[in-house]
Amino acid sequence: MSTPDHHPILQFDPLSSAVDPTFWHALSRNKIEVYRLDDAARAITGYYAPYHAASGHQQRGAVSQLVVGAARLAVTAQSFDSEDDSNSRKGMNGGGGVVAPGVLYNTNTIEEFKKLDKSAVFAQVADRIWESITSGAAVADPTLLTRFILLTFADLKKYKFWYWFGFPALLPFAPVRVRAVRPVREVWSARQVEALRTGVRGVGPFFLVKVASADDDDTLSVRGLGEWDEVVRHDESGDGGVTVGFVDPSGQPAHPGWPLRNFLILLQTRWKVDAVRVVCYRETLSSTTTTPTSIVLDLTLPTPSTTPTTTPKCVGWEKNSMAKLSPRSADLGPLMDPRQLADTAV
Amino acid sequence: MTTFQSLFHSAREYLNPLLKSSKFKETGVLTPEEFVLAGDFLVYKCPTWSWASGDPAKRREYLPAEKQYLITRNVPCLQRVKEYGGAGEQDGGEMDVEGESGDSWIATHKNRQAKGDTEEGTIADMDEEEEVHLGSRDGVATVTSKLHAAHIGNDAPNSEEDAPPDGEIPDMADIPDMDEEDALGEGVEEVEDPAALPGHIPASKREPAGALASGNDKILRTRTYDVSITYDKYYQTPRVWLFGYDEHRRPLTATQIFEDISQDHAQKTVTIEPHPHEHVSMASIHPCKHANVMKKIIDRLLESDSGKELRVDQYLLLFLKFVASVLPTVEYDYTTSMDV
Fold this sequence. Notes:
The complex is a heterodimer of chains A (about 350) and B (about 350). With about 350 residues, chain A is of the alpha+beta class. Chain A is built from 10 helices and 18 strands. In chain A, strands 2, 7, 8, 9, 17 and 18 form a 6-stranded mixed sheet that branches. In chain A, strands 10-16-14-13-11-12 form a 6-stranded mixed sheet. Chain A has a two-stranded parallel ribbon with strand order 1-6. In chain A, strand 8 and strand 9 form a beta hairpin. The longest helix of chain B is centred in the middle third of the chain and has 27 residues. About 30% of the residues of chain B have low confidence. Strand 15 of chain A pairs antiparallel with strand 11 of chain B, so a sheet runs across the interface. Chain B: One of its GO terms (molecular function) is Atg8-family ligase activity.
């Protein structure tokens, strides 16, 4: 293995759940009108977007500090809509959103929430992600790489909700090391960056990047993963490099967001990639900050000699506000409970 | 389900005829069609904003199904108003408001102007509207004290007043929710993962300004707001709604939200009411003075450059300048160009 050990291990910015209050209302309504006592797993949809830097720096005394928000995956009332009626609440996920398929386990009691074999249901999701990688289903539909799990218990009398998100990431076969991190503009020309921006809109959350190497032909195109053979295997530029990209919900200046993890496993397992250039696609409003936030990573991926036949170990439970592996709670009583609201009437 | 004044308001909204012809330059009000035009322009100019359809059961017929209201999410709010202090609060602040061509004008004493409207205006032409408005102030006080009490009882301290002065926090074992959260997480373990970037640090390492340092000490976690704009048929103006989250994405209480509202407006023109398109109550800036304020802003803009044509689709960009005076530390952008 050619990996020089002096290169640091790549660290990924974990996702943070963002639950819209409309999600809790829709869950409550579904529990009463549809699920009742049926606690079977339900398909839901999550949303994330390229990190969007609206404000670059905060001046505190003499020190200007970079302000970076969390990498968010959101669920809203629209998360319960099936494909057929998703248009009925169009726009809830905000502009430029990417969908992530999720599975919801809503228990009937707090005791059931406690007793639920969380490791088992988490492992089931990990198995499905691994299956989509080995079968190639994730090449056709890369959103399968960001499958997530959500456990909930809704105390409908108090409008109090217990919840726990898991964002399963298959562990790498050996640590991924990072050779270089650079802002996108140090790697590509303004024209190429613009081509990247327009290209990403039409392709989706994970993509291939084809860059013409000739200086006088300053072009870049964004392609779907299904075009791997054309873009990479029959690449005539001769440098043999593989360049990929993903819609990155993280704004960390030196780290990619969590969704890249399973994508790297796909690259290794499916195409035996051992070195890759990755563009972490983010957006910035140019008048509020002078530094665009998209970054380009040069990575070495230690490739296993044989592809594992079972699902690799998996991590990704969200930590709670005290940084512990525990659920979170949300008390919406003051804002949803008719009795509590009625109390405030004059 | 709803407060008395909001029920009353929705009844009046129902009875009030729709505004048909444009009057925005004369009176500062908008027709529903103009609201849609201005919303389309806002979404085009500021891609962080998008149209939402809301709950289909609460759809307003006079607006397109997919354009019921506007929303922008996760807007950072870096510091509390009292910390912001300084010029903004002392003299009402000066804001450079840019016109479409890049010509700018200065809106001075925005806060005072709005304050004058709410206080003097209220006394001078006290009428039915204003009585309702005053009533709602009492409602807010009730909500505030109620939420504040509830908040102390069952959650970790997360407003500055609650935090003990030395920055320490009480033993988490004393807080029932934390115990329950821990108990519910029992049995879940994960292998060590050196590839996970260390995330949030516990609240005990709180930064003075209420923002949390992350793995990198230059990176801060902040309060955020979801801001939405609805069309108020009675007042014929846009109306702003706020839903806030703390540094750990827990919903903010009314008391905490008022920390982010300029002192001229907190608990006077900002109330907690049911959102017209969703099943949640939120903080809202009462729209009774919006038309007056918008009329003044429009007049100033036209005076400063008499040759300039003001288009109605620019209304919401101007409206957000006014909203900025109410929410001085909430950093939504008005910018128009995108970079990567």
